[in-house]
Amino acid sequence: MTDEHIHHGEKKDNSIRITKSGLWQIISGILGVLLVISIFTSGFGVGGENSGTGVVRNQPSAGDNQGNNNIPSGIVDVSADDDPFMGDKNAPVTIIEFSDFQCPFCRRFWSDTLSQIKTQYIDTGKVKLVYRDFPLDSIHPGAKPAAEAAECAEDQGKFWEMHDKIFEEQNKQGQGTVQFGVTDLKNWAGELGLDQDKFDSCLDDGKYADEVAKDFQDGAQAGVQGTPSFFINGKQLSGAQPFVAFQQAIEAELTA
What we know:
By secondary structure, this protein is α/β, with parallel strands linked by helices. It has helices at about 20-40, 105-120, 145-155, 160-170, 180-190, 195-205, 210-220, 245-255, and strands spanning about 5-10, 15-20, 55-60, 85, 95-100, 125-135, 225, 230, 235-240. The radius of gyration is 23 Å and the shape is globular.
């Protein structure tokens, strides 16, 4: 914050006068501080048109780098529905992820943590990861069409390829929330080798709009208030947590 320019008045009236420029600098400084606080607390609570149950927002990472105190407790009854999953369908641990394709913290989980979970637990048959949609479309206008686009890609057997592509293309553009639209989604589908006509028709017709809405409602009923949110055998873990937080929670389930 720049130094405040405060001019003292003449001694005879014992008053303090603030110039217009000084007042503006003070106001700007206060707004700047609020903006920084907003960024580091993942924004002021924003309720989307889909929220229904209260405040929804991006979930920043939480806990220290050792993952201390991140083991979730309390079992929530949340369905995996018939959504796409990776891993052994009979794995002893099921992680249900509620995610938003335009959420930068969801992208952070994808880039920093998912590959470690996949290598250590999914590929070894210990964990099944189910992906469910929770688009915060009031702040992420690309999230809902992206969710529907991934479902359309699933029709052609390429859900996870589209899932990765959506996050990868945003990553190329830097940090934070990246703007994209239907045209971009169609282009990315083409780059993946999907049948373009079938994909475009699926997306334009809103074939999976109801499916995405159902995911959102199921998540809200389970207590999801932001993205990303995870349920590890029904125990909720919120935010873009480091791998060690998932490791502790998974190992606790495997040894229970």
